[in-house]
Please model this.
Amino acid sequence: QHNPHWWGNRNTIVHLFEWKWEDIAEECENFLGPRGFAGVQVSPANENIVSPGRPWWERYQPISYKLITRSGNEEQFADMVRRCNEVGVRIYVDVLLNHMSADFVGQAVGTAGTEADPAVKSFPGVPYSAEDFHPSCEIYDWNDRYQIQHCELVGLKDLDQSRDWVRTKLIEFLDHLIELGVAGFRVDAAKHMASEDLEFIYGSLSDLKIEHGFPHSSRPFIFQEVIDHGGQEVTREEYNSLGAVTEFRFSQEIGNAFRGNNALKWLQSWGTDWGFLSSGQALTFVDNHDNQRDGGAVLTYKSPRQYKMATAFHLAYPYGISRVMSSFAFDDHDSAPPQDAQEELISPEFDADGGCANGWICEHRWRQIYNMVGFKNAVRDTEISNWWDNGDSQIAFCRGSKGFIAFNNNMYNLAEVLQTCLPKGVYCDVISGDLINGSCSGKSVYVGDDGLGFVSIDSDDFDGVLAIHVDARI
Ligand code: LAG
Ligand code: CA
Model:
């Protein structure tokens, strides 16, 4: 179940973290569709515990499978899926199959008003009772398979997916979402479930719906969250035959490189040579909603110059199933998403340039990022060629005869005549500007009969990338 069922030449997913369904529907119509995004990963859609202060992570504590959360209700969810599919943008839902809510001080109530008693593993909204869960224990040894898969991840009540009843309820939940027109799922905490159980569950799901525009016999796309940096007991290889797997090593290494800890010339061998999964099995990202909060090498919107360069490389290099993060501003791990005095999520507001204003970061609306989504569409199905580097952190390469990109992560200027592989013409650099009504608001590159073009990226340029492609020819 590795096929994401993209429409046309599209091939980038965006994670609209904590967005409301109505806002996503509008974003599909007004921005994502027109800009060529292939799909959206949405926040968990099922009822979660209401936690004081409303941290984002309350959504990782299920109370039932009713489709009522702060993002909206079932009707709004269904409307979003329909409208996004209509403009060729697929919806993938973040699903929690591993666990339910953790213990709660006081009466646990969900976002649909359902009560539960996590302390005795009672979730009447499903219903689940104690026998549907593994006996309580703590994960303290990450090399002990039993603990990883049977004990409680940060205290979350651990479901027993080998039980018929649990399987039935999980399959019903996922089938309900398929019925509403989704294209697939991000499976949270997959490593904490036995792959045999997941295989049974995925294999039991219905096909995607023809009435929502999917070809006959399409299987739901599955991408599983398995954090595998190597050296642990449970590995990504146990899951990658069932569906794609999040490639955390990609995130780590791309952060390292663009933070300057690794010369960019080494990226020539990017991909499986770096110990990554094969391209069609790897869900790739610069940062995700968890590791953007962890610090370390991972790049986030907080280091915008490096972040845009890493994202440009991510989307230019032919490797992986790409996902772009779209965040809200946060100070610490527990920061709540933008909300009003009634603790309702607030809708993003846009400034004159189309960027987000009120607490939403909307990386996907940064020109350097959405234009690289367009680049990736333009170069789809081409190979990489004509790698060039300066022996350090200035690099460039072609994608067939469709696109060319150059990076400068050195402290001195790049000014070179390089092979762009493009047909003779004048091209607009989609990083420093946009092509609007035939005129380019950024740098232009003149490509001659021989494909050569003069490329310059000064070390003090606003961005350290230059990208041209056949769909942005002046
Ligand atoms: C995931 N993937 O495997 C999610 O990507 C990740 O965001 C989830 O953790 C985790 N697994 C469980 O679905 C998040 C937060 C945690 C939070 C947890 C449950 O990163 O911080 O735990 O969701 O809401 C919080 C507290 C813990 C506490 C726990 C239970 O931070 O201290 O033990 O709630 O009360
Ligand atoms: Ca488990």
Summary: Residues 57-58, 60-61, 96, 102, 153-156, 188-189, 225, 290 surround LAG (ligand 1) (CB under 6 Å).
